[in-house]
Amino acid sequence: MPIDLRSDTVTRPTPEMLAAMASAEVGDDVFGDDPTVIRLEKLAASLLDKEAGIFVPSGTQSNLCALLTHCQRGDEYLVGQSAHVYLFEGGGGAVFGGIQPQPIDQEEDGTLDLEKLASLVKPDNFHYARTRLLCLENTTWGKVLPMEYLAKARQFADEHGLALHLDGARILNAAIALGKPAADIAKPFDSVSLCLSKGLGAPVGSVLVGSADFIKQAKRWRKMLGGGMRQSGLLAAAGIHALENHVERLAEDHQNASLLAEGLAALEHIQVDPVQTNMVFATIDDAKLPALLDHLKRQKILAAGYTGEKVRLVTHLGITAVDIETALAAFAEGLA
Ligand SMILES: *Cc1c(COP(=O)(O)O)cnc(C)c1O
Q: In sequence order, what E strands does 156-278 have?
Protein backbone atom coordinates (compact mmCIF):
# COMPACT_ATOMS: atom_id res chain seq x y z
CA MET A 1 0.00 0.00 0.00
CA PRO A 2 1.40 3.42 -0.87
CA ILE A 3 1.59 6.12 1.79
CA ASP A 4 -0.94 8.43 0.22
CA LEU A 5 -0.48 12.01 1.41
CA ARG A 6 -2.11 13.63 -1.65
CA SER A 7 -5.37 14.39 0.13
CA ASP A 8 -7.61 13.39 3.01
CA THR A 9 -10.16 12.31 0.39
CA VAL A 10 -8.26 9.05 -0.22
CA THR A 11 -9.41 7.34 2.99
CA ARG A 12 -10.97 3.89 2.69
CA PRO A 13 -13.94 2.87 4.84
CA THR A 14 -12.91 1.03 8.00
CA PRO A 15 -14.39 -2.45 8.65
CA GLU A 16 -16.67 -0.89 11.30
CA MET A 17 -17.88 1.71 8.82
CA LEU A 18 -18.55 -1.00 6.22
CA ALA A 19 -20.51 -2.96 8.82
CA ALA A 20 -22.61 0.12 9.60
CA MET A 21 -23.29 0.56 5.88
CA ALA A 22 -24.18 -3.08 5.38
CA SER A 23 -26.74 -3.02 8.17
CA ALA A 24 -28.25 0.39 7.31
CA GLU A 25 -32.00 0.64 7.16
CA VAL A 26 -32.88 2.30 3.86
CA GLY A 27 -35.84 3.81 2.01
CA ASP A 28 -36.13 6.10 -0.99
CA ASP A 29 -34.67 9.46 -0.11
CA VAL A 30 -36.29 11.25 -3.06
CA PHE A 31 -39.61 10.22 -1.51
CA GLY A 32 -38.15 11.46 1.77
CA ASP A 33 -38.47 8.14 3.57
CA ASP A 34 -34.91 6.88 3.96
CA PRO A 35 -34.61 6.76 7.76
CA THR A 36 -30.81 6.67 7.75
CA VAL A 37 -30.49 9.77 5.55
CA ILE A 38 -32.99 11.55 7.81
CA ARG A 39 -30.91 10.53 10.84
CA LEU A 40 -27.68 11.82 9.26
CA GLU A 41 -29.27 15.14 8.29
CA LYS A 42 -30.60 15.61 11.83
CA LEU A 43 -27.26 14.65 13.33
CA ALA A 44 -25.30 17.13 11.19
CA ALA A 45 -27.84 19.91 11.79
CA SER A 46 -27.69 19.34 15.53
CA LEU A 47 -23.87 19.17 15.55
CA LEU A 48 -23.76 22.59 13.86
CA ASP A 49 -26.84 23.88 15.71
CA LYS A 50 -28.90 24.67 12.60
CA GLU A 51 -32.57 23.83 11.96
CA ALA A 52 -32.09 21.42 9.09
CA GLY A 53 -29.63 19.61 6.86
CA ILE A 54 -29.53 17.96 3.46
CA PHE A 55 -27.30 15.06 2.40
CA VAL A 56 -25.63 15.63 -0.99
CA PRO A 57 -23.19 13.56 -3.05
CA SER A 58 -20.27 16.00 -2.89
CA GLY A 59 -18.92 19.17 -1.34
CA THR A 60 -19.07 20.79 -4.76
CA GLN A 61 -22.79 20.13 -5.04
CA SER A 62 -23.30 21.28 -1.47
CA ASN A 63 -21.64 24.65 -2.14
CA LEU A 64 -23.49 24.95 -5.44
CA CYS A 65 -26.86 24.29 -3.78
CA ALA A 66 -25.96 27.00 -1.25
CA LEU A 67 -25.00 29.51 -3.96
CA LEU A 68 -28.16 28.80 -5.95
CA THR A 69 -30.33 29.11 -2.86
CA HIS A 70 -28.75 32.34 -1.57
CA CYS A 71 -28.41 34.08 -4.95
CA GLN A 72 -30.52 34.82 -8.02
CA ARG A 73 -29.39 35.36 -11.59
CA GLY A 74 -27.50 38.67 -11.76
CA ASP A 75 -26.38 38.47 -8.13
CA GLU A 76 -22.77 38.19 -7.07
CA TYR A 77 -20.90 36.64 -4.16
CA LEU A 78 -17.69 37.75 -2.46
CA VAL A 79 -15.15 34.97 -2.20
CA GLY A 80 -11.46 34.26 -1.69
CA GLN A 81 -9.31 34.02 -4.81
CA SER A 82 -8.09 30.56 -3.82
CA ALA A 83 -11.29 29.35 -2.14
CA HIS A 84 -12.43 25.94 -3.33
CA VAL A 85 -15.87 27.19 -4.36
CA TYR A 86 -14.30 29.80 -6.65
CA LEU A 87 -11.17 28.02 -7.87
CA PHE A 88 -11.92 24.31 -7.96
CA GLU A 89 -15.63 23.92 -8.71
CA GLY A 90 -15.75 24.68 -12.40
CA GLY A 91 -17.43 28.05 -11.96
CA GLY A 92 -20.71 26.25 -11.20
CA GLY A 93 -22.42 29.29 -9.70
CA ALA A 94 -21.88 31.21 -12.96
CA VAL A 95 -22.75 28.24 -15.17
CA PHE A 96 -25.95 27.10 -13.45
CA GLY A 97 -27.08 30.20 -11.62
CA GLY A 98 -25.85 33.24 -13.55
CA ILE A 99 -24.14 34.19 -10.30
CA GLN A 100 -21.01 36.29 -10.69
CA PRO A 101 -18.11 35.76 -8.30
CA GLN A 102 -16.22 38.76 -6.94
CA PRO A 103 -12.92 37.18 -5.89
CA ILE A 104 -10.41 38.81 -3.56
CA ASP A 105 -6.93 37.75 -2.42
CA GLN A 106 -6.81 36.03 0.97
CA GLU A 107 -4.68 37.47 3.74
CA GLU A 108 -1.80 35.42 5.16
CA ASP A 109 -4.09 33.97 7.86
CA GLY A 110 -6.73 32.86 5.36
CA THR A 111 -9.18 35.68 6.16
CA LEU A 112 -10.63 38.13 3.64
CA ASP A 113 -9.91 41.76 4.56
CA LEU A 114 -13.28 43.28 5.49
CA GLU A 115 -12.30 46.82 4.49
CA LYS A 116 -11.27 45.64 1.05
CA LEU A 117 -14.48 43.62 0.86
CA ALA A 118 -16.52 46.71 1.77
CA SER A 119 -15.05 48.51 -1.24
CA LEU A 120 -16.18 45.63 -3.46
CA VAL A 121 -19.82 45.59 -2.33
CA LYS A 122 -21.66 47.15 -5.26
CA PRO A 123 -23.95 50.18 -4.84
CA ASP A 124 -27.66 49.76 -5.50
CA ASN A 125 -27.51 50.89 -9.12
CA PHE A 126 -28.57 49.03 -12.26
CA HIS A 127 -25.04 49.17 -13.68
CA TYR A 128 -23.89 46.62 -11.14
CA ALA A 129 -24.53 43.05 -10.17
CA ARG A 130 -26.33 42.77 -6.81
CA THR A 131 -23.87 41.77 -4.08
CA ARG A 132 -25.78 39.14 -2.10
CA LEU A 133 -23.45 36.77 -0.32
CA LEU A 134 -20.10 36.39 1.37
CA CYS A 135 -18.50 32.93 1.24
CA LEU A 136 -15.76 31.95 3.68
CA GLU A 137 -13.82 28.69 3.97
CA ASN A 138 -12.72 27.08 7.27
CA THR A 139 -10.26 25.49 7.41
CA THR A 140 -8.78 27.13 4.34
CA TRP A 141 -5.59 25.57 2.97
CA GLY A 142 -5.17 24.02 6.40
CA LYS A 143 -5.57 27.33 8.24
CA VAL A 144 -8.16 27.95 10.95
CA LEU A 145 -9.97 31.28 10.74
CA PRO A 146 -9.86 33.21 14.05
CA MET A 147 -13.16 33.16 16.00
CA GLU A 148 -13.11 36.98 16.39
CA TYR A 149 -12.89 37.27 12.62
CA LEU A 150 -16.01 35.15 12.17
CA ALA A 151 -17.97 37.48 14.44
CA LYS A 152 -16.70 40.49 12.48
CA ALA A 153 -17.64 38.83 9.20
CA ARG A 154 -21.20 38.39 10.53
CA GLN A 155 -21.33 42.05 11.48
CA PHE A 156 -20.01 42.97 8.03
CA ALA A 157 -22.64 40.80 6.34
CA ASP A 158 -25.41 42.39 8.41
CA GLU A 159 -24.20 45.93 7.68
CA HIS A 160 -24.25 45.23 3.95
CA GLY A 161 -27.36 43.06 3.83
CA LEU A 162 -25.46 39.96 2.75
CA ALA A 163 -26.01 36.30 3.51
CA LEU A 164 -23.04 34.40 4.93
CA HIS A 165 -22.06 30.90 3.78
CA LEU A 166 -19.28 28.74 5.14
CA ASP A 167 -17.53 26.14 3.06
CA GLY A 168 -16.82 24.08 6.13
CA ALA A 169 -15.51 21.05 4.26
CA ARG A 170 -13.09 20.73 7.19
CA ILE A 171 -15.01 22.63 9.89
CA LEU A 172 -14.43 19.71 12.26
CA ASN A 173 -10.66 20.01 11.79
CA ALA A 174 -11.07 23.67 12.78
CA ALA A 175 -13.17 22.69 15.80
CA ILE A 176 -10.62 20.12 16.98
CA ALA A 177 -7.72 22.54 16.45
CA LEU A 178 -9.48 25.25 18.47
CA GLY A 179 -10.89 22.89 21.08
CA LYS A 180 -14.31 24.44 20.50
CA PRO A 181 -17.69 22.97 19.55
CA ALA A 182 -18.23 23.05 15.78
CA ALA A 183 -21.54 24.81 16.50
CA ASP A 184 -19.62 27.85 17.79
CA ILE A 185 -17.78 28.08 14.47
CA ALA A 186 -21.01 27.58 12.51
CA LYS A 187 -23.02 30.08 14.58
CA PRO A 188 -22.41 33.30 12.57
CA PHE A 189 -23.24 31.60 9.26
CA ASP A 190 -26.59 31.26 7.52
CA SER A 191 -25.46 28.04 5.88
CA VAL A 192 -22.58 25.63 6.32
CA SER A 193 -21.34 22.81 4.11
CA LEU A 194 -19.49 19.95 5.79
CA CYS A 195 -17.63 17.15 3.97
CA LEU A 196 -17.94 13.59 5.27
CA SER A 197 -15.53 12.26 2.65
CA LYS A 198 -12.39 14.09 3.77
CA GLY A 199 -10.57 13.28 7.01
CA LEU A 200 -13.78 11.93 8.53
CA GLY A 201 -13.31 8.89 6.34
CA ALA A 202 -16.68 8.37 4.64
CA PRO A 203 -16.51 7.23 1.01
CA VAL A 204 -18.96 9.81 -0.32
CA GLY A 205 -20.98 12.79 0.74
CA SER A 206 -21.43 16.18 2.30
CA VAL A 207 -24.17 17.76 4.36
CA LEU A 208 -25.44 21.30 3.86
CA VAL A 209 -27.12 22.83 6.91
CA GLY A 210 -29.12 26.01 7.50
CA SER A 211 -32.64 27.18 8.36
CA ALA A 212 -35.54 24.85 7.57
CA ASP A 213 -36.72 27.20 4.82
CA PHE A 214 -33.23 27.43 3.29
CA ILE A 215 -32.86 23.65 3.21
CA LYS A 216 -36.30 23.25 1.67
CA GLN A 217 -35.19 25.46 -1.25
CA ALA A 218 -31.79 23.74 -1.45
CA LYS A 219 -33.61 20.42 -1.86
CA ARG A 220 -35.20 21.63 -5.10
CA TRP A 221 -31.73 22.59 -6.42
CA ARG A 222 -30.28 19.25 -5.34
CA LYS A 223 -32.94 17.44 -7.38
CA MET A 224 -32.27 19.65 -10.40
CA LEU A 225 -28.53 19.07 -10.14
CA GLY A 226 -29.04 15.32 -10.12
CA GLY A 227 -28.24 14.87 -6.45
CA GLY A 228 -31.51 13.21 -5.44
CA MET A 229 -30.38 9.71 -4.51
CA ARG A 230 -32.52 6.73 -3.62
CA GLN A 231 -31.30 4.10 -1.10
CA SER A 232 -28.67 6.62 -0.03
CA GLY A 233 -29.04 5.47 3.56
CA LEU A 234 -26.19 3.08 2.69
CA LEU A 235 -23.93 6.10 2.24
CA ALA A 236 -25.51 8.14 5.00
CA ALA A 237 -24.72 5.28 7.41
CA ALA A 238 -21.04 5.81 6.64
CA GLY A 239 -21.48 9.52 7.37
CA ILE A 240 -23.20 8.81 10.69
CA HIS A 241 -20.44 6.39 11.63
CA ALA A 242 -17.86 9.05 10.73
CA LEU A 243 -19.54 11.77 12.79
CA GLU A 244 -19.97 9.45 15.76
CA ASN A 245 -16.50 7.88 15.69
CA HIS A 246 -14.00 9.85 13.65
CA VAL A 247 -14.20 13.42 14.93
CA GLU A 248 -12.02 13.29 18.05
CA ARG A 249 -9.38 11.32 16.20
CA LEU A 250 -8.76 14.26 13.82
CA ALA A 251 -6.39 15.39 16.60
CA GLU A 252 -4.13 12.47 15.58
CA ASP A 253 -4.04 13.76 12.02
CA HIS A 254 -3.05 17.19 13.28
CA GLN A 255 -0.34 15.65 15.43
CA ASN A 256 0.97 13.61 12.51
CA ALA A 257 1.01 16.71 10.30
CA SER A 258 3.04 18.54 12.97
CA LEU A 259 5.47 15.62 13.21
CA LEU A 260 5.85 15.62 9.46
CA ALA A 261 6.37 19.39 9.31
CA GLU A 262 8.96 19.35 12.10
CA GLY A 263 10.86 16.51 10.48
CA LEU A 264 10.83 18.16 7.06
CA ALA A 265 11.86 21.53 8.48
CA ALA A 266 14.99 19.89 9.89
CA LEU A 267 16.08 18.87 6.37
CA GLU A 268 17.99 20.98 3.89
CA HIS A 269 16.56 22.26 0.59
CA ILE A 270 13.01 22.44 1.92
CA GLN A 271 10.97 25.21 3.56
CA VAL A 272 7.84 24.30 5.45
CA ASP A 273 4.86 26.58 6.07
CA PRO A 274 3.48 26.71 9.63
CA VAL A 275 0.99 23.89 10.26
CA GLN A 276 -2.31 24.32 12.07
CA THR A 277 -4.32 21.24 11.15
CA ASN A 278 -3.80 18.28 8.81
CA MET A 279 -2.06 19.95 5.85
CA VAL A 280 1.61 20.54 5.26
CA PHE A 281 2.80 22.82 2.46
CA ALA A 282 6.47 22.68 1.62
CA THR A 283 8.62 24.56 -0.87
CA ILE A 284 11.42 22.47 -2.36
CA ASP A 285 14.56 23.96 -3.94
CA ASP A 286 14.12 23.77 -7.71
CA ALA A 287 17.38 21.91 -8.25
CA LYS A 288 16.31 19.12 -5.88
CA LEU A 289 12.69 18.76 -6.92
CA PRO A 290 12.91 16.27 -9.86
CA ALA A 291 15.14 13.82 -7.95
CA LEU A 292 12.96 14.09 -4.85
CA LEU A 293 9.70 13.44 -6.72
CA ASP A 294 11.31 10.51 -8.48
CA HIS A 295 12.54 9.05 -5.21
CA LEU A 296 9.16 9.50 -3.49
CA LYS A 297 7.46 7.75 -6.37
CA ARG A 298 9.79 4.77 -6.15
CA GLN A 299 9.20 4.59 -2.39
CA LYS A 300 5.42 4.70 -3.03
CA ILE A 301 4.91 7.97 -1.20
CA LEU A 302 2.27 10.06 -2.89
CA ALA A 303 2.18 13.85 -2.61
CA ALA A 304 0.25 16.48 -4.54
CA GLY A 305 1.89 19.37 -6.35
CA TYR A 306 -0.11 22.54 -5.96
CA THR A 307 0.71 26.19 -6.46
CA GLY A 308 4.02 26.50 -8.27
CA GLU A 309 6.70 24.52 -6.54
CA LYS A 310 4.80 23.88 -3.31
CA VAL A 311 4.13 20.29 -2.39
CA ARG A 312 1.03 19.48 -0.36
CA LEU A 313 1.02 16.65 2.17
CA VAL A 314 -2.21 15.79 3.95
CA THR A 315 -2.65 13.48 6.92
CA HIS A 316 -5.80 11.45 7.51
CA LEU A 317 -7.42 8.30 8.85
CA GLY A 318 -5.16 6.07 6.74
CA ILE A 319 -1.85 7.59 7.89
CA THR A 320 -0.08 6.44 11.05
CA ALA A 321 2.87 7.92 12.96
CA VAL A 322 4.98 5.09 11.51
CA ASP A 323 3.98 6.19 7.99
CA ILE A 324 5.21 9.68 8.88
CA GLU A 325 8.61 8.25 9.90
CA THR A 326 8.79 6.31 6.63
CA ALA A 327 7.86 9.40 4.63
CA LEU A 328 10.44 11.52 6.48
CA ALA A 329 13.18 8.99 5.77
CA ALA A 330 12.23 9.03 2.08
CA PHE A 331 12.32 12.84 1.97
CA ALA A 332 15.73 12.83 3.66
CA GLU A 333 17.09 10.38 1.07
CA GLY A 334 15.42 12.16 -1.83
CA LEU A 335 16.81 15.55 -0.81
CA ALA A 336 20.29 14.31 0.03
C1 LIG B 1 -13.00 18.94 -1.01
C2 LIG B 1 -13.52 20.30 -0.82
C3 LIG B 1 -14.74 20.70 -1.36
C4 LIG B 1 -15.55 19.87 -2.34
O5 LIG B 1 -15.70 18.57 -2.05
P6 LIG B 1 -15.96 17.45 -3.17
O7 LIG B 1 -16.69 16.44 -2.38
O8 LIG B 1 -14.60 17.01 -3.61
O9 LIG B 1 -16.76 18.03 -4.26
C10 LIG B 1 -15.19 21.96 -1.08
N11 LIG B 1 -14.47 22.80 -0.33
C12 LIG B 1 -13.28 22.47 0.19
C13 LIG B 1 -12.55 23.46 1.02
C14 LIG B 1 -12.76 21.21 -0.03
O15 LIG B 1 -11.58 20.89 0.46
A: 163-167, 191-195, 206-210, 270-272
Best CA proximity match to 21, nearest among 202, 245, 250, 206: 202
Residue 1 CA neighbour count, 13 Å, CB half: 10
> What is the crossing angle of helices 212-224 and 59-70, to 10°?
120
Instruction: Give the closest residue (by CA) to ligand 1 atom 8.
Output: 59
Q: State if residue 165 touches ligand 1 by the CB under 6 angstroms criterion.
A: no
Q: How far apart are the first and last CA of the chain?
A: 25
Query: Nearest C-alpha to atom 3 of ligand 1 is from which residue?
Result: 59
pLDDT in tens, 23-69: 999 999 999 999 999 999 999 999 999 999 999 999 999 999 999 99
Alpha-carbon separation of residue 2 from 193, 269, 312 (angstroms): 30, 24, 16
- Answer whether 0.90 is exceeded by the pTM: yes
d(CA 278, CA 251): 9
Alpha-carbon distance of 72 to 97, in angstroms, equals: 7
Atom of ligand 1 nearest to the CA of 61: 9
CA distances 196 to 104, 124, 191, 203, Å, are 28, 39, 16, 8
Q: If 0-12 CB within 10 Å is exposed, 13-18 middle and 19+ buried, where does residue 145 land?
A: buried
| Distance, CA of 315 to CA of 248 (rounded, Å) | 15
CA torsion sign, 5 to 62 to 187 to 156? positive
Q: List the helix and strand counts (H, then E) for the chain.
A: 14, 13
CA angle 78, 118, 61 (to 5 degrees): 10
